[in-house]
Amino acid sequence: MSSLEAQVSSIPASAPRQVRPIGRSRDWLVQVVMLLTVIVLWEAVGRGNFLYGLIPTFTDSILGMWTILTTGIVGKHVLISTYEIGFGLLVAVVGGVIVGLGLGSVGYLRLVFEPLITYAAAFPKIVLFPVFLLFFGVGPESKMAMGAVSGFVPIVLNVLVGMRSLDDKYIKMARSLGTNRLQMFQKIYLPGMVYPIFAGVRLGTALAIVGALLGELKVSNGGMGWLADYYFDQFVIPKMYAVLALIFVVAAVINLVLSLVLSRLTRFKASEVAEGRPLM
């Protein structure tokens, strides 16, 4: 060992720096103020008739939302969209995790396929919708396929990035102990991939929702996208905005739940680092 290495190794490891918690109440206050500002501007623009009545007032949109919720019109279409998005996301998650782990565990395959998947991320998935219509028809299956393809790519990419960030010494140690491939996935890969998988699922969920709703807007016989397009064709603008607002609320709630899960995972990893436990 050189004298420089000896000096470096003799330096005591510093204790993890404590991060001062951010004022969450202040953040919530800013968000509430911004939301109220948008509502006030929305109401003002609607009452001012600046855009020839194309933007209704916030009050009219809320009344339209109340109408479609209380009359039961929206229930059927919510179930259709939930079915399409949920099944498509399930396929995207299962397929994305399996493909990501499989490619990431073999260095050669990762080098070959990761650039191709990265290029596919920039490809507009909506151009594939005519192909899905050709194979699956105008029913829910084509929208499921749109949701699955849209959510698949970001999940695969997140898993691949997570696999690349795994500490190589744990992988070498497990292989030296004669660990087979199944045990490697159970003991090394999956425990170290929880955070990247959930991060990919969060992004994939948003894109699966967009993909399925775009399919409903193009060709469909039901769903929230179809309902918004129906009210547009009938020029019932307040109800159209009500459907869009309802979609936004549901998507925001899903994103909030996934964000809370990711936040808890982040704190868990930080606590492991502070306690000096090894991370995969």
Entry keywords:
12 helices, 280 residues, 79% helix, mainly alpha, disordered N terminus
Q: Ends: how far apart?
A: 29 Å
Please, how many helices?
12
Order of helices and strands: HHHHHHHHHHHH
Instruction: Provide the helix percentage.
Output: over 70%
Task: Estimate what percentage of residues fall within beta strands.
Answer: under 5%
What's the rounded overall pLDDT mean? 79
The secondary structure category is mainly alpha
> What is the global morphology?
globular
Low-confidence stretches: 1-21
Number of extended strands: 0
> How would you name the oligomeric state of the polypeptide chains in this document?
single chain
Task: Give a quick account of the main beta sheet: strands, pairing sense, barrel closure.
Answer: none
Instruction: Evaluate the radius of gyration.
Output: 24 Å
Layout: helices, strands, pairs:
Layout (H helix, E strand, L loop, with lengths): L2 H8 L13 H25 L9 H13 L2 H32 L2 H15 L7 H8 L3 H25 L3 H9 L4 H12 L1 H25 L5 H10 L3 H38 L6
Task: Please give a structural write-up.
By secondary structure, the protein is mostly helical. 79% of the residues lie in helices and 0% in strands. It has helices at 3-10, 24-48, 58-70, 73-104, 107-121, 129-136, 140-164, 168-176, 181-192, 194-218, 224-233, 237-274. The two termini are 29 Å apart. Mean pLDDT is 79; it is low at 1-21.
